[in-house]
Specification:
Layout lengths: L7 H13 L6 E10 L10 E9 L3 E10 L2 E12 L22 H11 L1 H7 L6 E5 L13 E7 L8 H11 L5 H6 L10 E12 L9 E11 L2 E10 L4 E13 L2
Antiparallel strand pairs: 1-4, 1-7, 2-3, 3-4, 5-6, 6-8, 7-10, 8-9, 9-10
Length: about 260
């Protein structure tokens, strides 16, 4: 993928922040759903236009348009809500090794660069402001794993104690290893880089806040691939087991002719 192409997680994070900065007092971003319409260029500025669609007593809604050179690149519907006391229930976090017991992604990245350069390009085609420690590492280049899991945190750490910034980090990271997980779970993987990956739609639900600077676990699973379209889900947990967010993404996986 060309380095000039804007990473989808950047759109998600910046759209979330744009909507959050327009939130009524006491409201936080709870969900966003976006459609990616055109490829953005990292060398040109992106403008985010926020439209107030609804301001209710409990829920607010914003539309965010990502514009570049007056061209619409992506469109997001963002939900915001006021925090209220309620019952608390969630699915348990998967039983996986903690981040302190795992190696940094650089160890696996360097090995895969030698064993499968095409896969290396798909997984690490640009640098990201994340420290990542993969849980799923065995036989990356052979596929077949049911779940791709990885721990992550901001690198460098986020300054201060800003919930909106923490939510933006989750939004950014929710787009890491998504469509590539759909490829990793196949019995055969491209050896020549002959595949195009492109996100069509991405939805994120933010359930809970988490401690500043803590590790987060993303558990990514491919649920369907048909007609060159993949559907992938993920759940994100804090190190203490809190279910922080859920994600669903549809994207194109098209072999190059």
């Amino acid at each position: 993928m060309p380095l000039s192409r804007v990473f989808g997680g950047r759109f998600l994070a910046e759209a979330l922040v744009s909507a959050g900065q327009d939130a009524p007092e006491g409201f936080v971003v709870t969900a966003l759903s976006g459609q990616f319409l055109r490829v953005g260029n990292v060398d040109r500025p992106i403008r985010y236009e926020v439209e107030q669609l609804r301001n209710g007593r409990s829920v607010a809604t914003r539309i965010v348009r990502a514009m570049q050179d007056d061209v619409l690149l992506a469109l997001f519907m963002v939900s915001l809500a006021a925090a209220r006391p309620s019952p608390d229930n969630q699915r348990a976090m998967p039983d996986v090794p903690g981040p302190d017991a795992l190696a940094d992604q650089a160890v696996h990245r360097d090995a895969i660069a030698v064993s499968n350069p095409a896969l290396h390009r798909l997984l690490w085609w640009r640098e990201h402001p994340l420290e990542v420690r993969p849980v799923t590492t065995a036989d990356w280049s052979k596929g077949g794993d049911d779940m791709f899991a990885f721990w992550f945190r901001a690198s460098p750490p986020l300054p201060g104690n800003d919930r909106l910034a923490r939510s933006a980090l989750v939004a950014y990271a929710s787009d890491r290893f998504v469509l590539t997980t759909a490829l990793l779970q196949q019995s055969s993987l491209p050896e020549s880089g002959g595949v195009t990956l492109a996100t069509i739609g991405h939805s994120l639900w933010l359930h809970r806040d988490y401690e500043p600077g803590s590790w987060l676990l993303s558990c990514v699973q491919s649920r369907s691939i048909a007609d060159s379209r993949a559907f992938v889900r993920s759940e994100i947990f804090a190190a203490n087991g809190d279910h922080v967010a859920s994600m669903g993404q549809e994207g194109l996986i098209v072999p190059k002719s």
